[in-house]
Amino acid sequence: GGKGTDLERYARVRERLSLSFCKAAVGRNEEKKQIQTWMKHAMNKGSPLLYVSGIVGSGKTLVVLECAEQMRKEAVAKKVAEFHFIVINAVRDIKASVQFYSYLWDQILMIEGKAPQGLGPSKAREHLQEYFIHKVNVKRKRILLF
After folding, report:
1. Domain identity same for 76 and 87
2. Is the same domain home to 53 and 98?
């Protein structure tokens, strides 16, 4: 029974069992509320860090992404300030921890409408320090980093 070959049925079942199949974080309303409150506070007061931890597959990433999407909708509706959300997946996006600075700097350049530079970690770190620390009077775009 069922539609398709055994291989096609297996592929459909495997897709549905994958972590990416779930489109909503069910039963995580309290966590969503806490994260959205932090995001709004971070945008207004500049709260520097939120650490989200939990066991693998518990929905941490999905909850944060849902909160960011809700905040994006609120920004479009002018309920919160406009912001840019940068996602850095350490497994997918960077091969070594030293590449973090380079990857982040390139993401910021793209937000600013500029081409990525592909700088080495030390030079990218210098640019990030200049961007975030030394240019205090420059109008920068708000960034939430995940």
Report:
1. no
2. no
Q: Quick check: helix, strand or coil at residue 9? A: helix
Longest dimension (CA), the chain: 67
User: Regarding predicted confidence, which is higher, 144 or 131?
Assistant: 131
Q: What is the mean pLDDT of the segment spanning 76-93?
A: 82
Average pLDDT, the chain: 81
pLDDT digits (tens, 9 = 90+) for 35-57: 888 888 887 777 667 788 888 87
Does 77 share its domain with 92?
no
Is 129 domain-assigned?
yes
Same domain, yes or no: 53 and 105: no
SS3 81: coil
Could you tell me if residue 68 is inside a domain?
A: yes
Is the pTM higher than 0.85? The answer reads no
Q: Indicate the DSSP class of residue 114.
A: -
134: its two tokens: 């030394």
88 and 121, same structural domain?
A: yes
Per 3-state DSSP, the chain is made up of helix, strand and coil in percentages (nearest 5) of: 50, 5, 45
